[in-house]
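Example record used in the benchmark description.
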Amino acid sequence: MVSNPSNSTSRGKYADRLDPELCDYIDKVNSWYPPEIVAAPIAEQRAVYNRMCVAFHLGRPEGVTTSDSLVETATHAIPVRRYRMAGKPAAAIVVYYHGGGFVLGDLDSHDDICAEICAGTGFEVVSADYRLAPEHLHPAAFDDALAVFEWVAATSTLPIVLCGESAGGNLAAAVAQATQRHMRPAIGQMLIYPGLGGDQSGRSYIEHAEAPLLTLADIDFYRRVRSAPGQPQDDPTFSPLKDRDFSGLPPTIIVTAECDPLSSDGETYRDRIVASGGQASWREEKRLVHSFLRARATVPRAAEAFARIIGDIGKLGAGGDALISPRVGVEERSA
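Model output (structure tokens):
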């Protein structure tokens, strides 16, 4: 999800809210994926986005091995990529759903992020290459996300942690809610700046409607392109915050960026889970923007935030009750 320009003459109120290294990252993203690309055909958008992802790819940590395979459904096959640490048995398995507004992204676009999660936690990671809009409208992406979860549950005995960023955070939350009473439910979920279909009158939607790298207009575009004309968007598999039952969810950690219109979604989702008797923690990373995971190599705040996320995934996979219980209903503060 990237579209709006951000340079030294147009940063506006963000000129003194973002660190110089992050401003440089924003400029680099916009140089690879310029604002005007949103008017281009989807195939061109994907080609440009994929080139940007290659430019930002950091490689895989030593010891991480990968294997690609297919999850067969009744109508099609879903590509997946599995990450393992060579010679080291895993204690849990992470099902990862990539970002990209339901329009962009694949197994390669977030390959290094998945590899670093694997190396940092020692867990196996399975990345899902779900179908994209507009060729495949809702519920295609959700159906694929659920199918990959079901496949992992059927083929691995390891505890499952759901993880997704941006659009992938939406899918992870929707899968968690759809499998609340599954015979092998996830033991935790990690949502990274997710779009959960929250009320656009919320705090961050108003304060950060024109934030760098993701605007309110971008969010509206991705919601429209994902759905058919007139298709209801109050379906919890489309907008997880529209669900009426938040009980029975696994321990949940939501991490958002301060300068991101979607940040309020994380806060609201945390509150809904806690109100239903569940365990959830929400952390808003200060002075960061949407998509900050890709900035981790050059922006110290992003690197520190990603290190915290990896630590949280590790604790969730080990049984995350102690991680969350003391903080139920309380926002974690990052510097």
